[in-house]
Design a protein that fits this description.
Elements lengths: L7 E3 L5 H8 L7 H10 L3 H4 L2 E7 L2 E8 L2 E5 L3 H12 L7 E5 H15 L4 E11 L12 E2 L5 H16 L9 H14 L2 E6 L2 E11 L4 E7 L9 H16 L4 E4 L5 H10 L2 E10 L1
Parallel strand pairs: 4-5, 10-11
Antiparallel strand pairs: 1-2, 2-3, 3-4, 5-12, 6-11, 6-12, 7-8, 8-9, 9-10
Length: 281
């Protein structure tokens, strides 16, 4: 087994079983990396990047997904520092660093001097999970969306992304790619919404899923519909649908300062199990 400095090397198809065993030490926190590995077989052409592994005594001890998103997997502070050293040698190619707070912080401290000033850093993001029925009655009108709903779903996705990230996903000519992503989620049965007549008043998507967990993204209620319990009942419905048909545990992460969203998730039954951090460029 050839490794580079500090036992780090890119993983490939032959490493898939070892990687999945590593990620599934915490299958909910690591759902994104598990999903990416399972759907790409760790082939770089499908990953759109690399999965780095750190080996200690010949055993895979930690990993790091390096694509559009850089995501540490089961990485201690020492692992994160080693991954940062490797990243410095190649320069920044990622748009986001996201994952467990300590690993992200250590990694960022290692590359900050060379990678330039981020657009935003969010250091306090509670990672929430629910592995039981929602604690409140779900909205019975929340359903999977179809391609016929795209004219309502797509603008809501753009509005949510812009509000959350601070820049439109359509910026710089990204509309076609983003529209394809929304259609992909609809086609997979991973897009959920509540309509009042023809008007969308709630939406959420599954970002990634494994047999162990599904991670929710894109929760959105139009401003004029907020404060009416729409998101709470809507999320209860999403939890019920996802747990019944996709995965037994539902997770998400939220900004610490988003008090209304945190209150809604708590009413549904989500509980904090970890802290994430995100650095965006």
């Amino acid at each position: 087994m050839l490794t580079t400095r500090h036992g780090v090397r890119p993983l490939g198809a032959a490493d898939l079983d070892a990687f999945l065993a590593l990620a599934r030490r915490d299958p909910v926190v690591n759902v994104f990396a598990d999903y990416r590995a399972s759907t790409t077989n760790l082939e770089p052409r499908w990953l759109g990047g690399e999965m780095w592994g750190r080996f200690v005594g010949g055993t895979l001890a930690a990993a790091c997904h390096v694509g559009a998103n850089l995501v540490p997997v089961q990485a201690t502070a020492d692992d994160a520092a080693v991954f940062a050293e490797r990243a410095l040698a190649r320069g920044r190619t990622v748009s986001t660093i996201v994952g467990p707070q300590e690993a992200v912080r250590v990694f960022w401290n290692g590359v900050a001097g060379s990678w330039g000033r981020p657009r935003e850093a969010r250091w306090e993001q509670p990672h929430l999970e629910i592995a039981e029925s929602p604690h409140i009655d779900p909205d019975p009108l929340v359903r999977r969306t179809t391609k016929e709903d795209l004219d309502e779903v797509y603008p809501a996705c753009v509005a949510m992304y812009t509000e959350e990230v601070g820049v439109s996903p359509e910026y710089g000519g990204g509309a076609e790619l983003y529209r394809a992503r929304v259609l992909q989620l609809i086609s997979r049965g991973w897009s959920f919404a509540r309509f009042d007549g023809d008007r969308l008043i709630f939406k959420a998507e599954v970002a990634c899923a494994t047999p162990y967990a599904a991670q929710i993204q894109g929760v959105y209620v139009p401003p004029e519909c907020r404060g009416q319990g729409v998101a709470t009942a809507g999320m209860a419905a999403v939890v019920e649908l996802v747990r019944r048909e996709i995965a037994p545990v539902v997770s998400l992460y939220v900004n610490d300062w988003n008090t209304p969203a945190r209150a809604a998730y708590e009413k549904v039954g989500f509980r904090e199990t970890a802290r994430f951090a995100t650095v965006m460029f």
